[in-house]
Amino acid sequence: MAGELDGMKVAVLATDGVEQVELDRPWQALEEAGAEPELVSLEGGSITAYEHIDKGATRKVDALVSSADPDVYGALLLPGGVINGDFVRADADAVAFVTSFFEAGKPVAAICHAPWVLIEAGVVKGRRMTSWPSLQTDLRNAGAEWVDEEVVVDGNLTTSRNPDDLDAFCAAIVEEFAREDEVEEESAS
């Protein structure tokens, strides 16, 4: 995995209640591939991750979503967690931030409860996706085709169900983000 994403800045949008393993494992995979992940959140300071319903580690926030510039990031990662997904989708700045990645055609990855944010952003209609099973009705009602698969890639969107799928999800996001990085390099030359 080393080097595929050298220098790519990746926004990782999360807040308190993010599922710790869904934040840590993809973050590590991105770093190992040479990316520079940055934690973008609703408030400054630090956030507290959760291990299911128990508090986990804290992580320092790098940027506020209300002032973060989506143009400086090559891709967006949305980790899951029930609390995280609900808080992020209720924040207008966060929803606008997510929408901007879709408008620019940049790669976006979401796991577990994070597709709630995508529903709020109005970007799931006509998409083939997966998520935590309890979101399937929400996704279908928003116009997505929900499937029960460990990872689904539909255009610039990569989705996955839960922590059990992290090996496949991490491999897919590195591959898909690298594909975007190659496209950007070709159009710059």
Q: How are the strands ordered across the major sheet? A: 5-2-1-6-7-11-10
Beta-strand level of the residues, as a percent range?
A: 15-25%
Order of helices and strands: EHEEEEEHHEHEHEEEH
Gyration radius from CA atoms, angstroms: 15 Å
Shape: globular
* Average pLDDT over all residues: 94
Which sheet architecture does the biggest sheet show? 7 strands, mixed
Helix and strand composition category: alpha/beta
Number of strands: 11
- End-to-end separation in angstroms reads 25 Å
What is the count of DSSP helices, taking H or I runs of 4+ residues? 6
Descriptive notes:
- With 189 residues, the protein is α/β, with parallel strands linked by helices.
- The chain has 6 helices and 11 strands.
- It has helices at 20-32, 82-89, 92-103, 115-121, 136-141, 166-188, and strands at residues 9-13, 36-41, 46-51, 54-60, 63-64, 75-78, 108-111, 128-129, 145-146, 151-154, 157-160.
- The strands form 3 sheets. The protein has a 7-stranded mixed beta sheet with strand order 5-2-1-6-7-11-10, sandwiched between helices. It has a two-stranded antiparallel ribbon with strand order 3-4. It has a two-stranded parallel sheet with strand order 8-9.
- Helix 5 (136-141) links the parallel strand 8 and strand 9.
